[in-house]
Amino acid sequence: MPSRELHLNAAKPADGAPIVAPLRLPYALEMALPTPKENTTALVTGASSGIGADIARELARRGHGVTLVARREDPMLVLADELTGAHGVRAEVIAADLTDADARAGLPAQLDARGLTADILVNNAGFTTMGPVHRADRAAELALVRTNVEAVVDLCTLFVPGMVTRHRGAVLNTASTAAFQPLPGQAGYGASKAFVLSYGRAMGAELRGTGVTVTTLCPGPVETGFAEAAGMTDDEAGEALPKFMWLPAADVAKAAVDGLDAGRAVVIPGAANRAAASLAHLAPKAWILPLMVQRHPALKQAPKP
Ligand SMILES: NC(=O)c1ccc[n+]([C@@H]2O[C@H](COP(=O)([O-])OP(=O)(O)OC[C@H]3O[C@@H](n4cnc5c(N)ncnc54)[C@H](OP(=O)(O)O)[C@@H]3O)[C@@H](O)[C@H]2O)c1
Questions:
Q1: What is the pLDDT of residues 123-169, one digit of tens each?
Q2: 51 lines ligand 1 (CB under 6 A)
Q3: Catalytic residue numbers?
Q4: What is the tens place of the pLDDT at every residue in 110-119?
Q5: pLDDT tens digit string along 229-241?
Q6: Measured from the CA of 47, which atom of ligand 1 is nearest?
Q7: DSSP structure string for the chain
Q8: Probe residue for ligand 1, chosen from 43, 71, 189, 192 as the CB with the greatest number of ligand atoms within 8 Å
């Protein structure tokens, strides 16, 4: 079986002998979701709607107990009942605003109090603002960075060390195809998702051989309340991106959890979205950015400065 050597401790005593024997983990051990146990959980943020709710459904279908985290408690309570009823798994709800550093810091203790260990971490909560930076609402932009970037870094920093110690864990971060090129009209959002993709790829490389994997989900347009929450009508959203690129949230969630199970670094659901992401990544930015400015509904509406 192929194996990789990991020097857990680079420091050596005077005689040159390693302090900690190198740990060898076979690739196969890294390539699956941790087996669900009674005291383990998958902590899923942004589980009150859309992709996060469907990722929770997909994990529960595979036997994982889930801890649902978002601000709106009621839809999560309904989902928790649904998952327990349909799959016989444990499901609990933590209502938390992830822009709040204290709320995030309290999550490990809330799991400890329930006797739970997070073997799976899904950083999926996120939202977008719309419009040019020079007309941006400062509070909304900062809330976006706190939710889409700061919370991802914070929860990884809080939960991944324990996974590494246990040699067991899987992290799924939701970015977007917006990560592959700048996104005029949603500049902060595009940059936040580029951060999530870069961060996840780097962390995944660091963790090779530890038994902990990192997968970054990069969906194209998905049929959720996401665009509406940003003040875009269905017509505007449909105009911005062709119909064949839109996918149901359940399909995106299945692709994400399949990718997590296979230890994939990046998952882009849908062939059209994979092609568009590659093209946008490779195309000279001086060509595509003016086209994107012309097409973006939030920029079409804005009067010229
Ligand atoms: N839909 C798309 O076209 C699309 C495409 C690419 C990537 N994505 C990404 O997919 C992820 C999920 O979006 P979605 O499409 O499923 O949209 P959605 O239905 O609007 O879900 C967003 C989730 O994030 C949660 N959330 C937002 N702000 C939060 C906060 N401050 N604290 C805690 N939770 C918060 C929301 O819960 P509460 O409101 O209850 O707090 C909700 O559960 C996001 O990261 C988004 O950027 C979406």
A1: 999 999 999 999 999 999 999 999 999 999 999 999 999 999 999 99
A2: yes
A3: 189
A4: 999 999 999 9
A5: 988 888 888 878 8
A6: 43
A7: --EEEE-S-----TT---SSPPEEEEHHHHSSPPPP-TTEEEEEESTTSHHHHHHHHHHHHTT--EEEEES-HHHHHHHHHHHHHHH---EEEEE--TT-HHHHHTHHHHHHHTT-EEEEEEE-------S-GGG--HHHHHHHHIIIIIHHHHHHHHHHHHHHHHT-EEEEEE--GGGGS--TTSHHHHHHHHHHHHHHHHHHHHTTTTTEEEEEE---SEESSHHHHTT--HHHHHHHS-GGG-EEHHHHHHHHHHHHHTT-SEE--SHHHHHHHHHHHHS-HHHHHHHHHHH-HHHHHSPP-
A8: 71
Answer whether 0.70 is exceeded by the pTM. Answer: yes
Architecture of domain 36-301: 3-Layer(aba) Sandwich (3.40)
Nearest residue (CA) to ligand 1, atom 28: 126
Is ligand 1 within 6 A of the CB of residue 186?
A: no
pLDDT score for 28: 44
